[in-house]
Design goal:
The chain is an alpha+beta fold. It contains eight helices and nine strands.
Length: 271
C-alpha cells in the first residue's frame, strides 16, 4: 500500500497543474509554427520556379528541412509547459508512448523514421527525378511520411518513405541541373557504322532542347536482333526530357532511313 501511495503522487506530478499551463501561449506557438511552415511551403517553390535553375533545387530542398526544424522547435518549446521534465518522467512517458504507438502505427512510424533518415542520406531531394519501384517522376515535395512525384504524364503519385527500406532508388540527376536521356535504335546490318554514329550525333547537336554544356555519346553494341545504338544526351531543362527523347527518336529514325539502313524490332525485355 505504501508503494502505491508513493507512486500516485509521482504520477500526478508528471503533468503540471491546469492553472500553471499557459494554453494561450501554446496555441500561439502551434499557430505560429503552422503559419511559418505554410508560408515557406508556398514562398520557396514560388521563388524557385522564377529563379535560376541552379538555385531551384536548393530552394525546394530547404522546404522539408525547415518544416522538420520548425516542428521540432515547437515541440521542444511546448513540452516543458505541460510536463515537468525530469529523467523519471521522461522514461515513463517514453516507455508508455513506445509500447502504445509502436504496434498501432508501426508502418507509419517506419515511414517517419525513413523520412528523417532521408533528410541526412538524401537519396532524393525536391526537384530530383527518381524512380522508386515502377514509379518515375520529379520529386515535387518531401514530407515526413511520404514524397510526392509528378510524372511525365502529369500524374501526381504519393510514395511513402517506407519504400526507402526495401526498394532500389534510381536518382537520374542527384541534385544536378540536368539528366541523361537515351534514345534507342536497333539497326539491321549491313550499314556504315561510322557514318551512322556521326549522323545520330548531328541529330542531338541540332535539337532545340539540347544542353550544350554536357557531352553527347553514341554507344554502339552488337545485339541478337542487329546492332543496338544508344544516343545519349542531356536536355537543357529536365522537365523537357519527354520532348527531347521524342525529338531524338523521330529525327534519328529519319537519319537512319536517309543512310539507307533498316531498323529492326527491339528484343523483348527479360521478364
Amino acid at each position: 500500500m505504501s508503494q502505491q501511495a508513493s507512486s500516485s503522487p509521482e504520477a500526478s506530478q508528471m503533468i503540471r497543474d491546469i492553472g500553471d499551463i499557459n494554453f494561450l501561449t501554446i496555441a500561439l506557438i502551434v499557430l505560429g509554427t503552422w503559419l511559418a511552415i505554410a508560408l515557406v511551403k508556398r514562398a520557396l517553390p514560388w521563388v524557385a520556379e522564377r529563379g535560376p535553375n541552379r538555385m531551384r533545387l536548393w530552394l525546394l530542398g530547404a522546404v522539408p528541412i525547415f518544416r522538420l526544424a520548425a516542428t521540432a522547435l515547437a515541440v521542444i518549446w511546448i513540452v516543458p509547459m505541460v510536463i515537468k521534465v525530469t529523467m523519471e518522467n521522461f522514461l515513463v512517458i517514453a516507455g508508455a508512448v513506445g509500447v502504445a504507438v509502436g504496434f498501432a502505427f508501426k508502418d507509419y512510424i517506419s515511414s517517419l523514421i525513413a523520412g528523417i533518415v532521408a533528410q541526412f542520406e538524401t537519396p532524393w531531394r525536391a526537384g530530383d527525378w527518381v524512380k522508386i519501384g515502377s514509379d518515375y517522376g520529379e520529386v515535387r515535395s518531401v514530407g515526413m511520411r511520404a514524397i510526392t512525384l509528378r510524372t511525365l504524364h502529369d500524374d501526381t503519385i504519393t510514395v511513402p518513405n517506407l519504400k526507402l527500406w526495401d526498394n532500389n532508388i534510381a536518382n537520374s540527376n542527384d541534385g544536378e541541373r540536368t539528366l541523361m536521356c537515351v534514345a534507342d535504335f536497333y539497326i539491321a546490318p549491313p550499314f556504315d557504322a561510322q557514318r551512322m554514329r556521326a549522323a545520330l550525333r548531328d541529330v542531338a547537336l541540332t535539337s532545340a532542347w539540347l544542353c550544350y554544356e554536357k557531352p553527347i555519346i553514341v554507344f554502339v553494341e552488337q545485339a541478337e536482333v542487329g546492332t543496338h545504338i544508344e544516343l545519349r544526351a542531356y536536355p537543357f531543362e529536365m522537365r523537357d526530357q519527354g520532348h527531347f527523347i521524342s525529338d531524338l527518336t523521330v529525327r534519328g529514325k529519319e537519319a537512319i532511313q536517309a543512310l539507307g539502313a533498316r531498323e529492326v524490332t527491339a528484343p523483348a525485355a527479360a521478364g
